[in-house]
Fold:
Amino acid sequence: MLNFSFQNTTQIHFGEDQIKTIRKAIPKTAKVLVTYGGGSIKNNGVYDQVAQALSEHTWFEFSGIEPNPSYDTLMKSQAIIREHDIDFLLAVGGGSVVDGTKFIAAAAKFEGDDPWDFVAKGQPIKQALPIGCVLTLPATGSETNAGAVVTRDGNKLPFFSPLVRPLFAVLDPAVTLSLSDRQISNGVVDAFVHTMEQYLTYSVNGKVQDRFAEGLLLTLIEEGPKALAADSTDDLEVRGNIMWAATMALNGLIGAGVPQDWATHMIGHELTGAHGIDHARTLSIVLPAVMKVCTDAKREKLLQYAERIWNLTEGDDDTRINRAIELTEQFFETMQVPTRLSQVDLGEGDIDALIAKLTQHGMVKLGEHGVITPEVSREILVKAL
Amino acid sequence: MLNFSFQNTTQIHFGEDQIKTIRKAIPKTAKVLVTYGGGSIKNNGVYDQVAQALSEHTWFEFSGIEPNPSYDTLMKSQAIIREHDIDFLLAVGGGSVVDGTKFIAAAAKFEGDDPWDFVAKGQPIKQALPIGCVLTLPATGSETNAGAVVTRDGNKLPFFSPLVRPLFAVLDPAVTLSLSDRQISNGVVDAFVHTMEQYLTYSVNGKVQDRFAEGLLLTLIEEGPKALAADSTDDLEVRGNIMWAATMALNGLIGAGVPQDWATHMIGHELTGAHGIDHARTLSIVLPAVMKVCTDAKREKLLQYAERIWNLTEGDDDTRINRAIELTEQFFETMQVPTRLSQVDLGEGDIDALIAKLTQHGMVKLGEHGVITPEVSREILVKAL
Structure:
């Protein structure tokens, strides 16, 4: 196991009817800005529950945070924050709303010229408004972690600061019952690939981390398809297991003390940035190709994955590895997401531009060994055609 | 899954040579009281590492905290705290030192007549001195949780407060290399039973919690015996896995959203209180008997445990359950701890007094269903003869 520091301070309130806990979780004297997306929370009752819980608070709202939240949209919040002297943000939505709210929180307190500089130029985040969140779509893990991804002019980039970690997160699986199949699929696949990025590297004999990661993968494989099946789309237990697995997949725990990859995500971000493909659907396309191109570097963990996740114990090493990759692709297909670039209408002719963007964004030494150069990324994209 | 709230704020610094992090983790202006046990930290170099890390701090020390720390010992710290105006406690030791330091922290700020009242009479803990810790014996999980157990006049009782949760915990597996076989055995068994208390109840379909608990059990079964084997007693990876598993076994995570038992612990506490038996050795005696007496209530989880931990898939339900209990006992024997009262020289004649103590301590409705009355506890102790 590698040395590590780990802390996750977010207070989690999990379960049905927990939105009411925000009444006590946010200081009574706070001036709250409720941030949300396109308004689905007004149709599924979540907005009303939040309004009810905040009935004794002074609050305002900022809506319209889109998937892959953009700098331009998010910056519009700053005038409202100044005007009303906002000192607490409550994000109500999925990972994009939470990520966008993290940007808003840091931007509101940023002392430099342009808040984009703490994203693109690594300027330090010294202060941020406190954040709470009500999660409506289990997927990104953003509800308890310190990272966020925002987009400007087709550049989709991450930033990190413990100051933007939510103070609390309400996880009520009941609010996910109104999600579309596509949203559920994307969430399950996102959480699955988050786990793989921290698991499928090289072994450092981190037995707890490996077992925990495997536990999340098995849970997502078992519960994901049920959430799409006609006879159990209203199953709260299934939704609860998916929600808790997605939070655990990216709260820092399974990645503490082990190497991490993230090449799939970095390559995937370019597909979203350039072509607007749903984040999870970029991951389901890129991950199988990464597994194929990086088989040698990941051999030991691929064999462990084959055995512990897919019960593959027969045949030689390569047979088991190939079968495990095949079964991963089949799982993605069951979850109704693409596994090839051709399925999202991209071809060989699109690869040059993607590689140029990766290079421009400094993503030239990706993966757990830092050896995925733009040339290897090209090989991965070709494999994904 | 049941509704739950979960938060664990402790900052963990894990790995070799991490003791030095306390230099920055404790405010420079703090007046620190370093608390420890019988002095083994002076022989294994830990005391020197701590002294080195605190070279720029003002610090004092309080030693002599014994296993199953006693009220009388712990209260001696209060004069030192008042005399030197101590405002930070650094516990350096195993679970007993950390537990004892939690009591010291709350006692120093207690405004009632007698600090024992927040243990025995449920008086509220409104303030506590901040605590950091350097763990030297992986076992109890106390390093990141909010609970502690202290003993007065043979009464061993728990208390809880988020105010006594350590701010940080240094987990350096290298410091555990000097532990005796008995200490290692006790630690592994303690962590194993902590996991079982939160796992072996009835199913609420908490898939992540179950998989995580199983991951800890498998890790302890794999690594525990290695830590005792002559050819790998210096294996840092083994020690690291045991240390991380023990922390995870009782940091609140695997128990969030699932029923919990704790009958084994409560009955075990009476064995320690009355007869001074090592805590873990009371657990290894009581747990198998609880599994036998409560088979029906725990049937579904026993079958899951049999399959996922011991790979038992052949034979009828009762055969698999009995074999799983047998294998649990064999694991304890491999870890060199007793599984019967007779092995610690106790017999049927001792049971009445134990049951009287349990009753006196209000432990009359134990277990995940609250149906383990003193009569059932008696049955359990008879089964453990």
Q: What stands out?
A: Chain A touches chain B at residues 1-18, 21, 205-212, 214-216, 218-219, 222-223, 237, 240-241, 244-245, 248, 256-257 (CB under 8 Å). Chain A has two domains: 11-174, 184-383. The radius of gyration of chain A is 20 Å. Chain A has a mean pLDDT of 97.
